[in-house]
Amino acid sequence: MSDQPITYASAGVDVHAGDRAVELMKESVRRAQRPEVLGGLGGFAGMFDASALQGMRRPVLATSTDGVGTKVAVAQAMDVHDTIGQDLVGMVVDDIVVSGAEPLFMTDYIACGSVVPERIAAIVAGIARGCELAGVALVGGETAEHPGLLDPHEYDVAGAATGVVEHDAVLGPQRVAAGDVVLALASSGLHSNGYSLVRRVVAAAGWGWEREVPELGRTLGEECLEPTRIYTRPLLELVRAAGPDLHVLSHVTGGGLAANLARVLPPGMLATVERTWQLPPIFTLVQELGQVPLADLEQTLNMGVGFVAVVAPAEADRAVALLEENGIQTWPVGTVEVAGEDATGPDVVQGAKGVDGGAVRVVGDYRR
Asked: Last residue of some domain: 147, 166, 185?
């Protein structure tokens, strides 16, 4: 039996700090709203008026959940917490756009060793900013304090979102045809995948995150904390403009370009992608600093391409122009054809993540 009374606070949980964090985040959350949101911050559940769906012929809900992986370790090491939230939003809502759906609302979850109100508010500010960029409502969230499970400075973030699309407008492998053009949409950097590899390379080299790197034009930590680009609004504009000529989209996340493109192609089809673009400096730096084999690098990082669109040939130029007008560098990288007997071998990726999809072959050399 304890000699002293044991309270929740003595066990390491400060409920007053949690309340303070909520107060600090209110203004950020207020900016990340849509007219359909009912109620305010602090309810047991976020509410969203779905009456607009009554005007749809056959609405299909799409949902996704994700985190940002070990990128949070870089944020913690740098003591910079107001960008990681945008990464979270991008990883979640842009998975929904792959189906052609419009993301509507999102919730977040932050687990931490100790609630530092200013730090939690900074994380949520990043989430709210990402939601603003995506046109998504942040309808709720949860901050959980886990002393003894996480160190006081440690935290992790996760989130989930829901969107909607008309049934006959769902993008998917059934639309893909021989002759389709593969378009690459530039990433803003590493995004939020492969940080276990990047951190291992940096540690092995004995580099610090504060190290100034001339070819990056800033510190290594600043480069690695560059927020994930959010493609939601430009891609939804493309969905509306291209209609049936937009066949599939692919979010280039864990697994790299080839594996994620293979997931959205139908069996029996092969996409040949040419390495015609110049790698952004961070990818070359990781490769050279860690002597990482190219195959391993391409299976881990996005290599400068954050999204892929597969369109009918007649739509390719218009799609490139629309995306460029929205500030996303876009360029054709390949075509789709019926797979022949040669669509096998070590340079071909067939399906991915349990999907019996098509095949992708990446050829050529990156531009120097």
From this structure: 166
| Structural domain that includes position 113 | 14-166
Lowest mean pLDDT among 121-135, 151-165, 349-363: 349-363
Per-residue confidence at 6, pLDDT binned at 50, 70, 90?
A: low
CA 360 to chain centre: 22
Question: Could you tell me if 154 and 181 lie in one domain?
Answer: no
Give the CATH number for residue 261: 3.90.650.10
- Asked whether residue 6 is domain-assigned, the answer is no
Convert the pLDDT of each residue in 326-340 to its tens digit. Answer: 999 999 999 999 988
Residue 4 falls within a domain, yes or no?
no
Q: Residue 199: exposed, middle, or buried by beta-carbon count in 10 A (0-12, 13-18, 19+)?
A: middle
281 has a pLDDT exceeding 70: yes
Say whether both 192 and 141 belong to one domain.
no
When pLDDT is cut at 50, 70 and 90, the band that residue 3 belongs to is low
Stretch among 185-189, 275-279, 356-360 having the lowest mean pLDDT: 356-360
Above 70 in pLDDT, residue 18?
no
**Quick one: tokens of 54?**
């009554």
Q: Is the pTM of this model over 0.85?
A: yes
Residue 354 shares a structural domain with residue 205: yes
